[in-house]
Amino acid sequence: MIEVDTAADATRSRRRTWITGGVLFVASALLELAPPELAFGMSFGLSTALFAVGAGVFAIGLGRPGSVSARRPLGTSAVIALAVWQLLSGPLFTAVSAMLLAGSSPMDMSGFGRDLGLVTMLTTSMDVITLALAIVATVQIARIAVVPRPFNRAPLWALIAVVFAQLAPNAIAVAGSIDDQAQLSALFALIPLITAAAVAFLGVAAIVLAVRPAGGETVVFASPG
């Protein structure tokens, strides 16, 4: 009996996964930038949810070949953990910071300053967790190289762009290089724009890779009997 084994099934799985994940990422980026009235007042939460679902789709795949981490434990766990953390970190920060500041009064400079310092430490800790998960996820995707080169490094490029966008305005503010508050505010306003652009870039890249012609060849072999 003649059996035909091709890369067709794997290609279809990747195409389904990468188009679905890519559309979710693009939608997430657009919602992040949408005015509240166009997003029914839920732009942030819905955008985060779409990103998390998209990341989960990329990690697990709609079929094993579609997984950008090849379903290997470290990379897959890191992507899923990052997606879940993105969903939980916002509500967690709101709840914990409200609890820390509940008994504080701006009139009590000592107590208020202490509690504000704790909130700052909380913010920093949450950012470190996010960055650590993102580094593990992007490095694993690059190393596993299920995504064709050089786009297997695209998540790492996006991460570098987002980190730079967040660090640069803060570094400039601390250094006092810009005295004009309007210019400084404009720099900080670029952070969500660059973050959304990075997510959109990943989404568009995934869609383009999914729809481009596959390079695999058909392999025909005879099974015993």
Write a structural description.
The structure is a single chain. This protein is mainly α. It has one domain (2-222). It contains six helices and two strands; from the N terminus they run βααααααβ. The chain has helices at residues 8-33, 43-60, 73-101, 109-144, 154-175, 181-211; strands at residues 2-5, 219-222. Helix 1 packs antiparallel against helix 2 and helix 4 runs antiparallel to helix 5. The longest helix has 36 residues, at 109-144. The radius of gyration is 22 Å and the shape is globular.
Give a topology summary.
Elements (H helix, E strand, L loop, with lengths): L1 E4 L2 H26 L9 H18 L12 H29 L7 H36 L9 H22 L5 H31 L7 E4 L3
Antiparallel strand pairs: 1-2
Helix pairs in contact: 1-2, 1-6, 2-3, 3-4, 4-5, 5-6
